[in-house]
Amino acid sequence: MSEKTSFSCGEHLDITQVASLHARLSKAIAKASVIELKADKVVKADTAGLQLFVSLQKEISGTGGKIIWRSPSDALINAVKLLGLSKVLDIN
Fold first, then answer.
1. CA-wise closest residue to 15 among 87, 79, 82
2. Tens digit of each residue's pLDDT (9 = 90 or more) over 40-72
3. CATH code of residue 29
4. How many other C-beta atoms are found inside a 10 Å radius of the C-beta of residue 26?
5. How does pLDDT run across 13-45, given as a tens digit for each residue?
6. Is 63 exposed, middle or buried, given 0-12, 13-18 or 19+ CB atoms closer than 10 A?
């Protein structure tokens, strides 16, 4: 297992993308203990999309790994704050 892998979040972190995102994230977790999430292009994030990342955060921290957010967009930050997930997702 490598130490770090990067993952692009794309533009939409919503229910229409959750299944696809989940499959891609599962592969990323299998490869590395640190997941770098590139989130600069996110224009829409909903509860289902963020719930996926809450689950990822719990899973990866349980194995001693971590998530690193790179350049989260304003849209993502606002959605995270609105849902009260800033501390859980460690994003600002």
1. 79
2. 999 999 999 999 999 999 988 888 889 999 999
3. 3.30.750.24
4. 12
5. 999 999 999 998 888 888 888 999 999 999 999
6. exposed
Residues 6+ apart with CB under 8 A from 79: 13, 45, 46, 50
The range of the structural domain enclosing residue 80 comes to: 2-89
Question: Is 1's pLDDT higher than 70?
Answer: no
**Is pLDDT at 92 greater than 80 in this prediction?**
no
Reading the block at residue 64, the tokens are 């001693």
Token pair of 25, please? 């994230």
How many domains does the chain divide into?
1
